[in-house]
Amino acid sequence: MSVAFRRESDEEHLEPKFELPIPPGPNLVTAAGPALLAARAAAIEAQLAATEGEARDPLLRELRYWRTRVATAVIAPAPAPDEAGIGSTVTFRLNGATRTITIVGHDEADADARIAYAAPLARALMGAGAGDWLPFQGRDDAIQVLDVERR
């Protein structure tokens, strides 16, 4: 029989399982970050305790990620009171819409009100104060900072 017609194992066709990627650079977090990361790791450990068989593999992979993030978390230095930085809540106007966001660490971010400090918008806001006009997306005066609050 030709090798071309031989049935190969289904295992040979599965995608390789890589570790979850760790964002580059230091793992800067807000003051609340270490507790948040530890809570996520604990939740996965609890889920893992109730799981058996091959379903444990993705949970173990995720647990390795969160344990690494807990071990490498560094609380970011507080920004100046009137300057945007990690842990600041910034109200600004962009494209005619007013938004309020909090700049946080990578693993603390969510889709709406908390953005990672490495996101383009957060990088544009870092170091700004109320009343500043900032360049963004190719425009020199795209962002107007209305208020900066340190949390």
UniProtKB/TrEMBL annotation:
Biased composition (Basic and acidic residues): 1-18
Highest rank taxon of the organism: Bacteria
Pfam families: GreA_GreB (PF01272)
Biological processes per GO annotation: regulation of DNA-templated transcription elongation
Molecular-function GO terms, alphabetical: DNA binding
Gene3D superfamilies assigned to the protein according to its UniProt record, in alphabetical order: Transcription elongation factor, GreA/GreB, C-terminal domain (3.10.50.30)
Disordered: annotated segments: 1-20
Cited InterPro entries: GreA/GreB_C_sf, Tscrpt_elong_fac_GreA/B_C
All residue ranges annotated as the Transcription elongation factor GreA/GreB C-terminal domain in the record: 82-149
Ranges annotated as spanning the membrane: none
Protein name: Transcription elongation GreA/GreB family factor
Source species of the chain: Sphingomonas abaci
